[in-house]
Amino acid sequence: MTWLPDDFVHPVHVPVPDTAVHLRPIREADTALDYPAVMGSRERLWEIFGPAWGWPTETMTYEADRIDLLRHEKEIAAHQSFNYALLDEEETAILGCVYIDPPERTGSDGEVSWWVVDDLVGSEVERALDALVPQWIAADWPFQQPRYLGRDISWQDWLALPPAS
Fold this sequence. Notes:
This protein is α+β, with helices and mostly antiparallel strands. Helices cover 37% and strands 19% of the residues. The chain has helices at residues 31-40, 42-53, 62-77, 124-140, 155-160; strands spanning 14-15, 21-25, 82-88, 94-101, 110-116, 146-148.
């Protein structure tokens, strides 16, 4: 049994209300946009994701990012996990990402986390994304008990939970 129903169709374009940005599944072709977004916010992203995911490393190369995005693209196609890029209207910049993953720890049926680039921390865009994600997950995803990592549970508390079977 998979973590999503066989007939589930993942959203491919999600406008963020009251902004000029949207979410769409990330692709390998987005590396030129993703790499500066990640590395430009790397220290803060490491504080958030480093202890759990070991990402993004200080020495992450463009090629390593491309390989990572190709993996994400393949996982999305296979419905194994999802990485949505937060993009401006013209798709000339990645401004953050939303991750929707099968549960690694007990107590949920989906694990969701997200970030914005340093320049958007505390902005209207960040507030709009923070409001959108739980509503979007509730409306468009088949989870009964989603968990919002770093939001409704700290990363440290999440890491202390038993692994999902």
